[in-house]
Amino acid sequence: MTDAARKAGRRLARDFNEIENLQVSKKGPADFVSKADFKAEEIIFDELSRARPGYGFLMEERGAVEGSDKTHRWIVDPLDGTLNFLHAQPHFAVSIALEREGELIAGVIYNPASDELFHAEKGRGAYMNDRRLRVSSRRHLEECVIATGTPYFGKKGHAQFLKELHKIMPFAAGIRRYGAASLDLAWTAAGRFDGFWERTLQPWDIAAGIVMVREAGGYAGSITGTGDVMETGDIVAGNEAMMNELRKRLADAA
């Protein structure tokens, strides 16, 4: 997993260096970024298929690819934070998770711009490069910096998000929106963020990050506490101590 993430990341890093030059080109950078996304996914698909020939895939670009081994599946986002990448902002990532019989058991999130490789395996902890990760220990929302994602153009949920923001922002130390859910979850696992919430995410946005937060000693699951977060895409994450307050305020906005 880590080798596949790094190899795809090296390709993205090379392409990222070309983005600023493309900002003023007649064609524009959007087509270039789309090709970079597909190329990174192709690299990951080839690497993981060689390593585990029978495993299936769920990928952002290719969709579902059935494997001969029905018990294992890779869940892949080759470029999370596409808009950041498009605007030459160095906050994007390769995200790969492994699912066994419906359970997430491993994850890798790699930011090529910072060369930070977050990785976790069930029962073995979470790490950033070689450093062990632990979620924040802050207990009260007033001490906490919370990350989130805003509904963008073409998506629903703007009114609901503003209601949630109204319930949380006055009581938190700060709110951040960086535009890459996988990295938001990795940073939550690392204690850089105290918590994270967002709605209507896709499985490849959150799969690796869920493993990361849980293995760093935190909670990552559905906002309501019921239902499968991989199906609903409505996620909240952070340490157990502040979850009750964050969840309560989100419920008040419902």
Secondary structure layout:
Elements: H1 2-22, H2 30-51, E1 55-59, E2 63-65, E3 69-80, H3 82-86, E4 93-100, E5 103-111, E6 116-121, E7 125-128, E8 131-132, E9 145-148, H4 158-168, E10 174-176, H5 181-189, E11 195-198, H6 203-215, E12 219-222, H7 229-232, E13 235-238, H8 240-252
Parallel strand pairs: 1-3, 9-10, 9-11
Antiparallel strand pairs: 1-2, 3-4, 4-5, 5-6, 6-7, 7-8, 11-13, 12-13
Helix pairs in contact: 1-2, 5-6
Protein name: Inositol-1-monophosphatase
Pfam family, one: Inositol_P
Cofactor: Mg(2+)
Describe what this molecule looks like in 3D.
Its cofactor is Mg(2+). It comes from Marinicauda pacifica. The chain has 254 residues and is an alpha+beta fold. It has two domains: 1-132, Fructose-1,6-Bisphosphatase, subunit A, domain 1 (Fructose-1,6-Bisphosphatase, Chain A, domain 1), CATH 3.30.540.10; 141-252, D-Maltodextrin-Binding Protein, domain 2 (3-Layer(aba) Sandwich), CATH 3.40.190.80. 39% of the residues lie in helices and 27% in strands. The chain has helices at residues 2-22, 30-51, 82-86, 158-168, 181-189, 203-215, 229-232, 240-252, and strands at 55-59, 63-65, 69-80, 93-100, 103-111, 116-121, 125-128, 131-132, 145-148, 174-176, 195-198, 219-222, 235-238. The strands form two sheets. It has an eight-stranded mixed beta sheet, with helices on both faces. A hairpin with a 3-residue loop joins β6 (116-121) and β7 (125-128). α5 packs parallel to α6 (203-215). The model has no long low-confidence stretch (mean pLDDT 93).
